[in-house]
Amino acid sequence: LRARFATSAWRIPARPVLVYAAAMPERLAPLARFEHRPDGALLVHALEPLGAFPRCVSDALAAWAEATPDRAMLAERPAPGAPWRRITYAEAFGAIRAIGQGLLDRGLTAQTPVAVLSGNSIAHALLGLGAMHIGVPWAAVSPAYALAGGDLARLRQMLAHVASYEAFVAVDNC
After folding, report:
1. Where does residue 108 rank: exposed (0-12), middle (13-18), buried (19+ CB within 10 A)?
2. What is the pLDDT of residues 78-88, one digit of tens each?
3. By C-alpha distance, which of 74, 73, 52, 56 is closest to 64?
4. pTM for this structure?
5. Residue 97 in contact with residue 151, Cβ under 8 Å?
6. Rounded to whole angstroms, what are the CA distances from 111 to 60, 106, 107, 108?
């Protein structure tokens, strides 16, 4: 079953497609042509032309929020054995729009990225999606890497490559 939305011509796939072309090219033979290069590279050429696709991730999220607003999009456990915290597609899309507006209100643009120093979390995901929604670049900075060694030298070195940025730090998630 594939859904078509009035707002765009692209379709939500009925199931995710995972491609392990290098390991099992024979299983994909009806879908693709394989070219083995002398240098060991394997090129996969799709036999079907590229169909319509969403302009950006936000368009796909909007479609999912409309089609399945109460379906869980993200879930996390604050601690082992604790109940799951879930956020639906509708809640996530609303949060992404609000976060995007908040970033715009702070004056962020394509020239002022967001650096996110946080472990994996719903807040981290929503911030990244909110930034993408408005065209602001974002960089996830691994707390384990950035804070290794007990000082902030690695973090300073990483952020030195960005002329101007906003930072989001999740203290309880580092």
Report:
1. buried
2. 889 999 999 99
3. 73
4. 0.69
5. no
6. 25, 13, 10, 8
- pLDDT tens, 22-32? 445 555 556 77
Q: Tokens standing for 27?
A: 């299983």
Return the structure tokens found at 79: 């601690």
Cα torsion for 19, 23, 28, 33, to the nearest 10°? 100
| Closest C-alpha to 45, from 55, 59, 31 | 31
- DSSP per-residue string spanning 96-157: HHHHHHHHHHTT--TTS-EEEE--S-HHHHHHHHHHHHTT--EEEE-HHHHTTTSSSHHHHH
Angle subtended at Cα 52 by Cα 48 and Cα 55, rounded to the nearest 5 degrees: 140
- The token duo for 50 is 């590229």
CA dihedral 91, 95, 97, 100 (to 10 degrees): -160
> Given this model, what pLDDT does residue 135 score?
92
164 vs 78, higher pLDDT = 78
